[in-house]
Amino acid sequence: MTTKVSMATLNAMPVEDFVRVLGGVFEHSPWVAERAAAHRPFTSVHALHTEMVRQIEGAEHDLQMKLICAHPELAGKAAIRGELTPESTSEQAGAGLDQCAPEEFARLTQLNQAYREKFGFPFILAVKGYDRAGIIAQFERRLGLTPAQEVQESLQQIFKIGRFRLEALVEEN
After folding, report:
1. Do the strands 5-6 and 170-171 form a parallel or antiparallel pair, or are they unpaired?
2. Which of 173, 168, 171, 153 has its CA nearest to residue 2?
């Protein structure tokens, strides 16, 4: 278990250290932490998360799409090869995706492919609280969305993932 860092410590850190500690909150996108650092001090995890979300929402579309594309597929090739970030590995395992039955894995593979063909980026879901059947149901529902709707849904899921990760990393004052 990683030791949590206090909000007071985060607020006092040099920018480089702040980014080192929080750079993984949003998958392979340390720019979010770097931009948020300029708005310290933060009084709570909620305030920090709100600022990080504001930085993403205010970013240019191409940068938002890079953030979306930085996420791994659920139960995808990167998971099989052991190439996920520690955060993604833990989140996917917590939803039981590392224990898929062959038919579940086949269905997830099919859904990942259909989703990527339709939208051009990986399916993103804050899996905390979902089981494999719930994840499959979300995949199926979201395949019915338009590309513009799905970009917004993906960003909302990324914001949830970021919140969970911040809560695991940062201790309130």
Report:
1. parallel
2. 168
Q: Please give the torsion angle defined by the CA atoms of residues 85, 87, 90 and 96, in that order, rounded to the nearest 10 degrees.
A: -80
pLDDT of residue 73: 80
Domains of the chain: 5-66 (1.10.3330.10), 72-159 (1.10.3330.10)
Which residues belong to the active site?
71
Among candidate residues 35, 42, 34, 39, the one with its CA nearest the CA of residue 10: 42
pTM of the model: 0.88
Q: Are 155 and 56 in contact (CB under 8 A)?
A: yes
Encoded tokens for 17: 């250290």
